[in-house]
Batch of 4 targets.
Target 1
Amino acid sequence: MKSAHLCVLLSVLSSASLPVHSFEPFTTTLVLGVGAALGRTIYNYLHESCDPKWIALNATGLEVDLERKLFGQHTASRIILKAVNGFMTNDNPRKPLVLSLHGWTGTGKNFVSQIIADNIYKEGMNSSFVHIFTSELHFPHASQFDTYKSQLQQWIKGNVTNCAHSMFIFDEMDKMHPGLIEGIKPYLDYYDKLDGVSYRKAIFIFLSNAGGESITQKALDFWKAGRDREEIQLEDLETLISRSVFNNKKSGLWHSSVIDKNLVDFFVPFLPLEYKHVVQCAMAEMKARGFRPDENVADLVARDAVYFPKSERVFSVKGCKTIASKVHYYR
């Protein structure tokens, strides 16, 4: 389809390239202008650019993906859907969207980041406007903290200058040097512009295991009380998470004014996954690989997972983290 459209554009451009000597100066300028415009159209058709053709929220797609692909996270799904919808449909947001995702490994934090990117950027996570930072890869040495801080500030400023609708994902926040995120605090605040650059249309997503224990304990308390996990609401967890992260010296947001000044729009809890959710993950993995979903295989994968508390085996220790390799093993 793309090549067919390109042929049409090239044909039109070719027909516009008539001999220059047959035109008066004004006409020549007009034709060359048309040719240049068509050339830009072709370039923008083939190369990602910061415009609505490449960056636009697919609200229906986001809702469907959260409903069909993210398992056991009713609270997170609801928050993400409302937060992203509200932000992307606001032509003049007062500040960037800042989401802080918390929970144990394998509960879906990275996956949600991908879902958000896939439904905003045509190129998804491969978009040149989506930027991922991992603490151990990009900021490995505490002794170089000042250098990292300066580089991070320049990187964000340069990319937002290039495209206002840039997305920045910070993974492993619980392993990040406390204070590094403090360096970008002004970019998250309520400023129209900083040094001539507006950051209000950017999206910042923090991923962290910090707060996971508080979330898990709350889920366990609900289970012991015989209450359905679907009853757990944001208000049951948000304060617990923010306090846990703010007071945790291993958190990248330890004693951070980003929290103190209420610049995080939502602390999003990811609950520990149960056996039924691991089964759903296994079924989804088989479907994603082009296999016919097999409930027997999914059951074997789920049974092989490690659960806690040990006697009751309620929650999966690794969530759906190792499901892909387990599905391959049992098929």
Target 2
Amino acid sequence: MKVIILAAGYGTRLEKDIKNDPKQRYKHLLGIPKPLFPVGGECLISRWISILKGIREDSDCKTNIDKIILLTNHHFVGAFSTWAKQWAGTVEVLDDGTTTNETRMGAVADIEFCIEYFKIDDDILIIGGDTLFYKDFDLQCFLNEFYSKNLNSLGGALVTCYHCKDSDTKRSGILELDKENKVVAFLEKPDPDSTSSRWACPCFYVFSRKSSQLIAEFLREKMNAPLEEKDAPGHLIKFLQGKVPMYAVPLKSGRFDIGHLETYIECDQYFSDSS
């Protein structure tokens, strides 16, 4: 299995929040990519690497993670390359060549760029670089679910989901699930009255080899679509759901999305208090 950590965004919303903070408490974070923000005394992305490294080195683990890739842009590649020195031999940094938010490739195109660059023909774990789960999340159990449902052989995909508020459906991709947690529909930012589901789907997925091979087809279909449709991974999930078996693992406690200053502060506080 390969791991791709998506870190090619420019964090424009969070940067705006920091600049507009009346107390200017976090101005020291300006210019730092979100995945490198300190969370409970350790940068966000290092928390994922520690977990992945543990699985990789566990001789009793059935999951063989043989490559961890952090995909970033040219603007931030220097910062990530410096960070990666502490993880020498564990993570490889890849530069997608973009330099501005306006010229970014988009998350889905970045995944395909990574697949083509490394000639990946394997199952892939995709992790949004600005996402963290609560400490009760067990990555190994999540990966075991992928194999127990035989989704690697069936060409399927496994995603995560968590309960969101009614008011949050318009800001999230929403899954509709059957009794076995099979994904029967994906709705991109729906009105809360249009679905009874409140299962929000973050950017954290396992794609089988077959599923990942369909990404190029998705991008061909979206060739002339607005950048937002290639940047929001939910559009890819909707595309795949109609073509391969897809199941969801509900998160017990939810997740942190470091997209705004408020959520960053909450995340930092949680990991500071529970460390």
Target 3
Amino acid sequence: MSKITGKVWNFGANIDTDVIIAARYLNSSDPDHLAKYVMEDADPDFSNKLKKGDIIVAGENFGCGSSREHAPIALKAAGIAAVVAPSFARIFYRNAFNMGLPIFELPESMEIKEGEEISIDLDSGTIVNNSTKKSYKFIAIPPFMQELIASGGLINYAKEEMKVK
């Protein structure tokens, strides 16, 4: 997975984990169940409009609030290919990588508008807005975090490591 291309959905700053997946749905940790309700409190019809491979572009501090792992699980299960924002809450940042959800820090993220298509090139460290042809450099992802994404998350990474030994 060296390139991710998808349609953009915009959300503002300070999107907390309760907006990503509301607490009322946390009676299950089944990814398919959670996917049905992703971002429901921000847009009640979001999960029906969303297509596999779409990308969320948001404002600063995405994933703030409680430290539930359900938030990146719900996004990934719903088909979100990546999240782009100027900054992420630290616990969400780590949970996203642990669950295998690619996230990218881009200070200019809000220049990218809903409905536009972007391509994220992990090898070159760039995001290209295919609609406007503008190119951006995202903040580099540490090599170990790249390995987690390539493995599909921490559990898969650990399983692969166990096979090597």
Target 4
Amino acid sequence: MTSLFDSFDLSGLPLANRIVMAPLTRNRSPKAIPQPITATYYAQRASAGLLITEATAISHQGQGYADVPGLYTPEALAGWRSVTQAVHAKGGKIVVQLWHVGRISHTTLQPGGQAPVAPSAIQAKAQTYLINADGSSGFAPTSLPRALDTSELPGIVEDYRLAARAAIDAGFDGVEIHAANGYLIDQFLRSGSNHRTDVYGGSIENRTRLLFEVVAAITEEIGGARTGIRLSPVTPANDAFDPEPQPLFEHVANGLASYGLSFVHVIEGATGGSRDYQQGDTPFDYTAFKQSYRQAGGQGAWMVNNGYDKDMAEQAIASGAADLVAFGKLFIANPDLVERFRADTPLNEADTSSFYGGDERGYTDYGTLAGSQ
């Protein structure tokens, strides 16, 4: 029987186990530059089969939260290179999550104080994290976005391509395209946020156009074996909504099958919330979603996420429902989560007050079974 602790071949990348650290925004990269403590943080967690970094902006326009990292300046890339070297020195594998937040931003975070961009000029019922001039921080409503002109979209696709190339040059083992949780690509997918009347709006085929253009550009640049994608079919995160997610995401699954992706990372239910959450009249059928991908020829690893504990993860792996299981918040307080799972020992409790922003406290100072940090 296949175990959570068995090794896995991820499109030629050998993973020591099937436990993945999910992306976790921590807001500790001033000026979008990963710091030395960032390298420490990821290296501490390198026993995971795969680390997926916090969401990382592909451009200044793609920024949406204070002190999150980027991939678009030499300084940021140097910071990330220190991270990948530290993780590889511990025998770990790491991919970076490519991010454009779209409308989930604020004018103070945008180039020249401009409005954020989106498929349509619809303000999200959501908040973002800001650091004020006096050093205080907190959450504030997102700004009203402007609708992207059709002529601007090739430039955004190019930003994704350049970021993917930069990631590989910085030593990452691959990338994960963030197409989930109500950010730019997801905003185009869903009819609740996409009211366009051009070739990027209206029908499912049109609303998925940007997604497939981004996937094509990245896989042509770095190869499908180094490219994964994250999807969240029914999450309401960041005001994401579509009344008919099943046909939409089965179309996505069918289309993704031809790109030779490394993995498909699926958030089941509401991100960070109920696994049974649904949009539309019927529950989302995740089995049918996966079958659509497989029947269309998709060979990438199937990664599941949201609310899994060790027992649920073991069942998902043993049954073949998933190849990999991603854990988020458990990794914040348990850098040695793999070892704790293996030994069936108690888990540390996370300090929620230190999740966003700050220094080493609540970031790199959690204890391990070995007694080191």
